[in-house]
Design goal:
Structural class: mainly beta
CATH topology: Lipocalin
CATH superfamily: Uncharacterised protein PF14869 family, DUF4488
Strand content: over 45%
CATH architecture: Beta Barrel
Radius of gyration: 18 Å
Number of strands: 8
CATH class: Mainly Beta
Distance between the termini: 54 Å
Length: about 120
């Protein structure tokens, strides 16, 4: 019984913890995203304003439109898709932020499977 009594204050402190999300700080700017494909580290650079995101990866540049759902969630749609897969919109959701980076999850709209990553804001 004493253990339960001591556990209650700890649980109440932990339940008050709020994840930092200053999403507005990351709506525009230049960013870098590192990821691994088949054991090979790759980097994507992108620049975003309120309505357009231009990304460069593997020497290719691509442009997508942005539709903000709220301050922490937006939908990307390729402007010039080359195939049916690229025609599908991508849902992006910022989960946490820090001073220079944010953690996000993304996936195709309407699909439950999501992936996560961390983006660094460039100066």
């Amino acid at each position: 019984m004493k253990k339960i009594f001591l556990l209650l204050p700890l649980l109440s402190i932990l339940s008050c913890y709020d994840v930092e999300r200053n999403c507005k700080d990351f709506k525009t700017g230049k960013f870098k995203f590192d990821y691994t494909v088949d054991g090979v580290k790759k980097t994507t650079f992108f620049e975003r304003n309120d309505s357009i995101e231009i990304e460069t990866y593997d020497g290719k540049t691509d442009t997508s439109t942005i539709r903000w759902v709220n301050d922490c969630e937006y939908v990307l749609q390729k402007k010039h898709p080359k195939n049916s897969l690229e025609k599908k919109a991508i849902d992006m959701r910022i989960l946490t932020t820090s001073k220079n980076s944010y953690t996000f999850e993304f996936g195709m709209v309407g699909v439950d499977e999501k992936q996560r990553g961390t983006v660094e804001k460039l100066k």
